[in-house]
Automatic annotation (TrEMBL):
Domain USP positions: 1-199
Alphabetical list of PANTHER family matching this protein: U4_U6.U5 TRI-SNRNP-ASSOCIATED PROTEIN 2, UBIQUITIN CARBOXYL-TERMINAL HYDROLASE
Reactions that this protein is recorded to catalyse: Thiol-dependent hydrolysis of ester, thioester, amide, peptide and isopeptide bonds formed by the C-terminal Gly of ubiquitin (a 76-residue protein attached to proteins as an intracellular targeting signal)
Pfam families cross-referenced by the UniProt entry: UCH (PF00443)
A GO MF label: cysteine-type deubiquitinase activity
Domain of life: Eukaryota
Gene encoding the protein: Usp39_1
Listed EC numbers: 3.4.19.12
SUPFAM superfamilies: Cysteine proteinases
BP GO annotations: protein deubiquitination
Name used for this protein in its record: ubiquitinyl hydrolase 1
Keywords tagged on the record: Hydrolase
Amino acid sequence: MRIFTKKLPHPDLPAEEKAQLLQNSEYQERMVESTFLYLTLDLPTAPLYKDEKEQLIIPQVPLFSILAKFNGSTEKEYKTYKENFLKRFQLTRLPPYLIFCIKRFTKNNFFVEKNPTIVNFPITNVDLREYLSEEVQAAHSHTTYDLIANIVHDGKPSEGSYRIHVLHHGTGKWYELQDLQVTDILPQMITLSEAYIQV
């Protein structure tokens, strides 16, 4: 994966100072090649307010819109205690198995919050060709993935529970496992869960 990073000047600086800083080599975009074990997918911020019927709306987002982070052109701002950076990511190679970690939990100074957004994902034929850099697309004959496992977190961040959906390759049936319980599950029900990790 290629990671492009650009340091940003402090937003409160006058425009002239910002322009001068952007000329320094410290503020120029840098590219680093990196290997990865999994891809972290950022969810959009969950709504703060209830709808007119006083019920919380559970937002939904398509998998491909949060995968756009890896298209090589989408920039995202990352903040540290002292500095801000713009980063963009581009895939240069696809592994035999791909792991997505959907970033549901955020921690601030006081507590951990969970984002309940449902990710709409296809169970089969997720094609990642468009996220590869152009020069390596031709080298990858297989760019589609099928879901084989889905880990779900239910409940509050501090006291929730986990369950897993697993595809039995021999029969093509999906099963849900939680502790020692194993039950059949329809593939359509898997897509309605608060997926946390997907293989």
